[in-house]
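Troubleshooting log. The previous structure file for this entry was overwritten by mistake, so regenerating from the original sequence record. Sequence copied from the archived sheet and checked twice against the printout by T.R.
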Amino acid sequence: MNLVYAGPDGHVYDHPDFIALGRNGELVTELLEEELIPLPEGATLVSLPDTRPIGLNARTGAMEVVPGEVNAVGALLPQGFTRLLLPGYAKTDKSKVLPLFGYSAVVWKDGTFYVAAEASDDPERWNPRNCDPDELEVQVNSLLSRYPENRLYQHLSNCALGYECLTASNTFLNRWEGAVPVSFSCNAGCFGCISEQPEDSGFPAPQTRMNFKPTVDEVVQVMLEHLKTPESIISFGQGCEGEPSTQAKIIIEAMREVRRRTDIGYININTNAGLTDHIRGIVDAGLDLMRVSTISALDDHYNAYYKPRGYTLKNVEKSLRYAADKGVITSINYLIFPGVTDREEEMEAMIEFVRRTDLKLIQLRNLNIDPESYLQLIPQPQGERYGMKQMLEIFREELPGVVLGSYTHIPSELTDKRKKHLQRS
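Regenerated output below.
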């Protein structure tokens, strides 16, 4: 399997004199055949600035930095695929940080590109080719003309057309899971926040956070437009906003008004779940689904990344437990990183956390971060590292009733419950 690199011309090449390597955290390691799959449709190859690739010299077997003016290459995977290894590289300037993306190891093998990854969900609904740009633009203009005063539609139009956010696009295409952002503030200072970064962080935020407080009427309009089919989901908590539960009053009033007018579809919130009292109010207003973002079930690791303000991981657990007890289908948005998530102590803590909170689904998300910065931030490993592929196997064995996936699923029991409710009404 040949090493892949980017030349000075920006083109991608394979190097016949070097065997590709990957990284598990800071450890450079060989790639195994069982860790590789063909480059998925929708994946993107990118050059890693200020880096040089590391490979095995095919003649000597020695691990070397590839000579010449070349950069390492990584793959950005579409939703539905979990990376198993980082690209093998070394930085030429350690003061420079990589843009906030989830880089996966990529190789050239048997005449095509392969990546160190595993298919964790059916990616069909989240494949960019299913979002026709011409149709999207027509639908954006249609809703903007129908609701010219609704600032949420104006904001989401940039998310859909400018950032090509598929959840925002779904809002205009009236399908599947759509977005309804509500919050410009947050009760956490996430190290890898994609919508807001301190000026001195060195990370350019790839998205712009919303800068206004929507009215209840604006939220209701977006929700009612989207909740028109039995399988539709409308979601608070997007990459373009802060923590949605900080605007619990707006959410609760909007949910009650929407549910007064329709029982169709499902209401979801993506949240850090730290504001337990606010979450309880949202749950009691008729929430169907809740996805909680977490990077670890260990306090020191969680706190180092999220920098929570006025809450702890114990509050998160209480929120999840309350929602589950009230019949909400709960999941976690699990931010995973090779060399960290597969640590023995991390795995043990997360398995117990899932059991205590009665989670139904673990949504695996590749953490978008500069690897060196992240590894310097979190605690050092305390036990064995199992590798991402074995970690996933252990989770499936230890948590047989929990779905491992990549996006929100509506369990059959909730669908059946909703059908019976609609038949009665």
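The two ends are 60 Å apart (CA to CA). Archived copy saved in two places this time.
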